[in-house]
Give the backbone structure.
Amino acid sequence: MNARPQLKSLALDRLRDQFAAEGLPRYRADQVAAWIYQRGVEDPRGMTDLSHELRAHLQGSWALRALEVERVDYSSDGTAKAALRTHDDLLVEAVWIPEEDRTTLCVSTQIGCAMACSFCATGSMGFARNLTSAEIVDQVCRMREVVGSGRTPSNVVFMGMGEPLLNLDAVVEAVRLLIDPKAFGLAPRRVTVSTVGVVPRIGALLERVPINLAISLHATTDEVRSRLVPLNRRYPLEALLGALRGLDSVTRRRPVFFEYTLIAGVNDSVEDARRLPALLAGIPSKVNLIPMNPHPDSPYAPPEAAVIDDFLAALAGRGLTVTLRRSRGPDIQAACGQLALRTRAASAA
Ligand code: SAH
């Protein structure tokens, strides 16, 4: 265990306040942030433009690292999945996804998940605890160091283990560091937070950080969605979609991304495809179809290719932007919904 406070849990304005409260000049916080987030230097001894006193203070009073790399698996397609160890000996997974024009890092927000979606491996492992914002931020630091040769990913998606909106404060604090030009400096539009639909917190998220919103939709009727996503019983489709229509960002025509995991015989019919455009009317929508990635904790399978083609054909020309997402890293269990199996095995051992 590490009792010193985690420096990466504070966005830059709060770090400046903290330094000021300790009698240090505020700009020192900016210098420290530049070392850690821009140059990837986490050992105060390497922060050569700081005084010896301040370096000793950092060393003695703050923890600068929240996670250690436990193992990294590389897929034949270049995707890398890492298991990262917390101070209390839990594992969290992050996935590095190189593409032609960008590199996306998928981060986790919780250890396990309480949402219990019936097709998701993380959902079947139950909930252990929220990650701190330092643990969210450190996924970026560790992955860029061990997988990215020091390069910051161009995009970060909050689509790993856990439900981000049930850990909202930590997620917002981490996002603020990601999009701060004096920290990681990502454009806000290159950060995406995905939610299963915790309706009362969606507006709060977007008021606090101007990032992309993704909604895990997965069905066109409440009957089917409640079977896949139990939270739908509390916030059914009309409540969710109604709330989205009322968002400031939606009235300003910012698109909402919808994830739709295609599951054979469950939500993959031509009728489903035909219902989708009407359901999403009034919301500038981008639909991401993800064929179900199978795993041992779920009875579900992806549809046959011909069924997916029919689904796509039924959606064509209906005014929606639709993409079919290629699974990345399925050979290392790194694809959507496959996180957590090894973590669970490891923590059970
Ligand atoms: N809890 C948030 C963040 C996780 S995002 C959310 O649900 O939005 C992970 C995405 O992968 C979600 O859209 C999830 O529904 C999807 N997913 C889960 N299990 C999957 C599987 N086995 N195959 C394909 N996609 C899956």
